[in-house]
Amino acid sequence: EGLWRKCNKCGKPIYTEDVRNNYYICPKCGGYFRVHAYRRIEMTADEGSFEEWEETMPVSNPLNFPGYEKKLAAAREKTKLNEAIVTGKAMIGGYPAVLGVCDARFLMSSMGHNVGEKITNAVERATREKLPVVIFACSGGARMQEGIVSLMQMAKTSAALKKHHEAGQLFISVLTDPTTGGVTASFAMLGDIILAEPNALIGFAGPRVIQQTIGQKLPEGFQRSEFLLKHGFVDKIVEREDLKDTLHRILKLHSAEAGKDVDLETVCGETAVPVVDKRHKKSEEGGKTPWDTVLLSRKSDRPVATDYIDMIFDDFMEFHGDRYFGDDGAIVGGIATFHGIPVTVIGQQKGKNTKD
Fold first, then answer.
1. d(Cα 156, Cα 120) in Å, to the nearest integer?
2. I need a surface site. Which of 107, 180, 226, 300 has the fewest CB within 10 A?
3. Please, where are the H alpha helices in the chain?
4. pLDDT of 334-347, one tens digit each?
């Protein structure tokens, strides 16, 4: 009992221990299981570094919705959680961050006023303590039993993140399956950097609702993270096993200590050694024709932006989202280090063959 379970993606029997050892990913079809909040924290935070905030909050039923208290009590009993999100402070690869993790077992991690309050308090404390914020979103949206009080949390969490942004602090949003409704329409899509797990459902209304409303067949993979990456709403899709390392690299590049130990005079004062290319000797002698220049400019093996980036910078991480329309393949942008100094890199990218 408990040794085997059925994959909800492929339906095949899988050994539970294999799933645990594989970051809760089905070893047969690669499907992602939803991860409980504390397990996600174990996978993300350095061992023993997580300090939970607001572990308990008073129960309330602002609209006196019938049976709501019983549902909350049942969810608490089932999950051993006080609410649908766990917040606190942790170290990720040695760098401090405020962490928020939604747990889908608790009323599908819907955002009621307690969830909104916990997120807002965590963000405001992060702003005061000058800490980055990382939130793992997973939700069915606003909590219907709280009506307009639930919808108010969208504005409240967004306002707290706006102040966090104005204070120059970082917010990384990690979208997991599913991220929908009022959570998508508020804090989940406000990240300075938005990461997503593969094939996660991300949207406002669900695909079935949209299809029934407009009476049209939706594109393949509609509202999945790969679709959102292509359309500019996600910066990077990260495999679950690489998430901690990716977060560590981002936090390292945005930390207050990044680049402090670098001697700028040494970096900027390095004397460039001129490189003599014998192929260009004719031009120095004035023997190159206009057609030679055209051929040189159209050479298929000319370096492109990514070639320069690979040669000049270390730890380059490309981000794709423009939050507006789509990912333009002619522009490459991201963060990197240059002699230990964190930088933003943007390059115009051309192809290396006629198809590109």
1. 7
2. 300
3. 16-21, 37-44, 68-79, 113-128, 147-166, 181-184, 207-214, 225-230, 243-254, 264-268, 281-284, 290-297, 305-312
4. 999 999 899 999 99
